[in-house]
Amino acid sequence: MSEVKIIEVKANILEANDYVADELRRRLKREKTFLLNLMGSPGSGKTTTLLKTISMLKDEMKIGVMEADIESDIDARKIADTGVCSIQLHTGGMCHLEAGMTREGVDSFHTQELDLVILENVGNLVCPAEFDTGASKNAMILSVPEGDDKPLKYPLMFQVCDVVLVNKIDVLPYFDFDMNKFKTFVYQRHPGIEIIPISAKTGEGIEEWINWLKKNIAEWQKGE
Question: What would the 3-class secondary structure string for 123-152 be?
């Protein structure tokens, strides 16, 4: 029987992506620009949280936002209305953003003039976790209505993130969501990770999130 040559395509793609991501991260480090990769499911409140974040930081630092979607520019227009620089990245049907795509978006900014660039990744809990975008830090938003079992179902997302925002805590009384159980599940996947309960609607917990973000931006710019 003839031998069949097997090519590990996914492994090669990930290795090439990691190289580009590392190069982008080093570049942004030199420019002292902090890139936040924000991930989460559709409807988790990514854009609403992002709008709240911008409103609290735009007077202190220069911000740029990249909105990644399969189609449309709805979210990019919402961000542009805040007065910060906003661009739309269309993925051509792909369910995630790769480092090369992120670099294209970054190249459209004068990043050396920006303190913070936020990438709102495509909405799902699977594909975006698999690809390093070159971000300084990864953040994810999980909303209360999604359930407290998601760390068990989508472990990689929680493993690659540096902070987890639990959004929509204002509706906790109406859903079967156990915060202590959720934290236990998250720590099983990523011991010691920061978990910040918030409500983008009411503003509860947002100050703690902003403090986390400002601390990490300051450390990045100092080279720590």
Answer: CCCCHHHHCCCCCCEEEEEEEHHHCCCHHH
- Rg of the chain on CA atoms, in Å: 18
- For the four alpha carbons of 78, 50, 140 and 89, in that order, the dihedral sign comes to positive
What average pLDDT does this structure show over 114-120? 94
Q: Smallest Cα–Cα separation from 37: which of 27, 46, 45?
A: 46
Pair 169, 144: CB distance under 8 Å:
yes
Predicted structure pTM score? 0.90
pLDDT tens-digit readout, 56-114: 999 999 999 998 876 667 777 888 888 898 888 876 667 778 899 899 889 988 778 89
Report, in this order, helix, strand and coil percent for the chain, each rounded to 5.
45, 20, 35
